[in-house]
Amino acid sequence: MDITQTATETFINNNSLISTIIEEIKLSKDEFGELQIQITISKFSKKSNFSKINLLFNDIVEFNFYYNSDYNFYNIEDYKLLYFNNQIYLSLDPDQSIKDKSEHDSDFILAKSLKLL
């Protein structure tokens, strides 16, 4: 299901990504040889409509993830989810001093398409 334009309304309140866990981040190529990123997220609250989901980002514009073995991989403690200029943006380590996309956001994906699998 394409949720590019509705993701910001999908993941609010009981369906928030806060306190969920990323189980897997998978980079692959689609049928046209273009990069796609799939993120598997689990441990939603019991009140959520979800228990485990796969988010598939296509038409990747930019992404950046950092890993360090000193930290747990990967509890979502905060995030920024935006839809602008017909693109979807997810930062899992956001600069919360700015509501829009920030050069200080980390662990992010900017893509033209997002599907909920």
Structure write-up:
The chain has 117 residues and is mainly beta. 3% of the residues lie in helices and 45% in strands. It has one helix and six strands; from the N terminus they run H-E-E-E-E-E-E. Strands 1-2-3-6-5-4 form a six-stranded antiparallel sheet, with no helix packed on it. The longest helix has 4 residues. The protein is globular, with a radius of gyration of 14 Å. The model has no long low-confidence stretch (mean pLDDT 94).
Keywords:
117 residues, mainly beta, globular, 6 strands, 1 helix, 3% helix
Secondary structure: elements and pairs:
Elements: H1 7-10, E1 21-29, E2 35-42, E3 52-64, E4 80-84, E5 87-93, E6 106-116
Antiparallel strand pairs: 1-2, 2-3, 3-6, 4-5, 5-6
Helix content: under 10%
* Order of secondary-structure elements: HEEEEEE
Beta-strand share of residues: over 45%
- The parts where pLDDT drops under 50 for at least 5 residues are none
> What spatial form do the alpha-carbon principal axes imply?
globular
**Helix tally?**
1
Mean pLDDT: 94
Which radius of gyration do the C-alpha atoms yield?
14 Å
Q: Main sheet?
A: 6 strands, antiparallel
What's the N-to-C terminus distance? 7 Å
The count of strands amounts to 6
Spatial strand order of the main sheet = 1-2-3-6-5-4
The chain-level structural class is mainly beta
